[in-house]
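User: Reviewer 2 asked us to show a designed sequence for the structure in our supplementary figure. I'm pasting the structure tokens here. Could you produce the per-position amino acids so we can include them in the response letter?
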């Protein structure tokens, strides 16, 4: 039994009482036992447990009891008074806030991992041809005289490779407008790449390193795959960051200048994603097969390049090979395409045209 003060809710009179609990019932009476009251424990709403403030038990009929803070047994209102409810609520809020933070971080990661490439691909797919052409020309202009110097290939060699190129390109349906340009480019070694305006840049070192026309056209076919998939544009858009993508979504085309500048950076520092390389391979396998060349020619060309040119080995020498590593998966896919090609050829003599250059091992 603990001392308390009772207010009946009708008058402001304070009645000193003794307070006790019997099971689920709260009981209190005057010291002289002239009056006694009771209320179900679960109908009583306790106030917050705040140090130094009398504890208030609100009754359903509007009255209330004041109890000295330290005297109220803790087990009378376990987890029920408001402060503990508040703590409960805060705890739930805190977990909710944590969940919120996790969701936001995951969304941002998702945006950068999937949303940005998605947006970049959408933009690349809907980019006006004129814009891609102008970006390609800008970046070529930025490269010429610095990384790309005038070719030193003889005119006969150039015109021969150009005619091989055009003979092949004219047989491949669905290509965007393309052209082939040779450059002396010591900074990027034996290399080839496709610019957004359709230009395929082929360095002198790579033109000298390819063992034959089949190897040359296999590299071209792979680059045409990058060209057909707009890979350079997509890669540059992806790596240009969310601000440029956002700017372009909102129609701010001034950020394109910065993007053109990032193409040379891409050439020196970066490489295509594995997915783009696979797409370019698949395109090359189809294009080569359609011209009667065994699709494994690209892999054979790369292997031939590696073996035949030890002087080009090193950081910059065979840049093209270092950016197109021949891993097992790639070779397996080339072999699968090759088997399909040979099965389709059905042993007819046409396959020989591809095998001649493709099987130098
Ligand atoms: Zn590639």
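Assistant: Here is a per-position design you can include in the supplement:
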């Amino acid at each position: 039994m603990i001392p308390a003060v009772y207010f009946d809710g009708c008058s402001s009179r304070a009645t000193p009482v003794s307070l006790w609990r019997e099971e689920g019932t709260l009981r209190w009476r005057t010291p002289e036992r002239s009056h006694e009251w009771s209320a179900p424990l679960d109908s009583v709403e306790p106030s917050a447990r705040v140090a130094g403030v009398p504890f208030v038990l609100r009754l359903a009929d509007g009255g209330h009891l004041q109890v000295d803070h330290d005297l109220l047994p803790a087990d009378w209102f376990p987890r029920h008074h408001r402060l503990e409810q508040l703590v409960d609520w805060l705890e739930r809020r805190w977990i909710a806030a944590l969940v919120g933070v996790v969701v936001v971080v995951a969304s941002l990661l998702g945006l950068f991992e999937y949303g940005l490439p998605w947006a970049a691909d959408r933009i690349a797919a809907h980019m006006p041809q004129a814009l891609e052409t102008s970006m390609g020309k800008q970046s070529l202009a930025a490269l010429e005289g610095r990384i790309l110097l005038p070719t030193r290939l003889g005119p006969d060699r150039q015109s021969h490779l150009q005619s091989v190129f055009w003979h092949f390109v004219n047989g491949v349906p669905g290509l965007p407008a393309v052209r082939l340009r040779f450059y002396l480019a010591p900074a990027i070694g034996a290399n080839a790449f496709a610019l957004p305006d359709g230009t395929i840049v082929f360095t002198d070192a790579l033109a000298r390193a390819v063992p034959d026309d089949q190897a040359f056209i296999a590299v071209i076919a792979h680059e045409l795959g990058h060209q057909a998939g707009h890979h350079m544009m997509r890669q540059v858009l992806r790596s240009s960051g969310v601000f440029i993508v956002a700017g372009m979504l909102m129609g701010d085309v001034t950020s394109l200048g910065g993007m053109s500048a990032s193409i040379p950076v891409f050439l020196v520092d970066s490489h295509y994603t594995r997915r783009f390389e696979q797409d370019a391979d698949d395109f090359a396998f189809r294009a080569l097969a359609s011209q009667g060349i065994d699709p494994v020619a690209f892999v054979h060309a790369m292997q031939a390049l590696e073996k035949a040119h030890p002087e080009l080995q090193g950081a910059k020498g065979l840049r093209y090979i270092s950016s197109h590593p021949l891993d097992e998966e790639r070779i397996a896919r080339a072999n699968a395409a090759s088997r399909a090609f040979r099965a389709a050829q059905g042993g007819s003599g046409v396959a020989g045209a591809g095998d001649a250059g493709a099987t130098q091992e």
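For the response letter, you might also mention the following. The chain has three domains: 2-78, 81-126, 128-358. Residues 2-78 form a domain with the PH-domain like fold (CATH 2.30.29.30).
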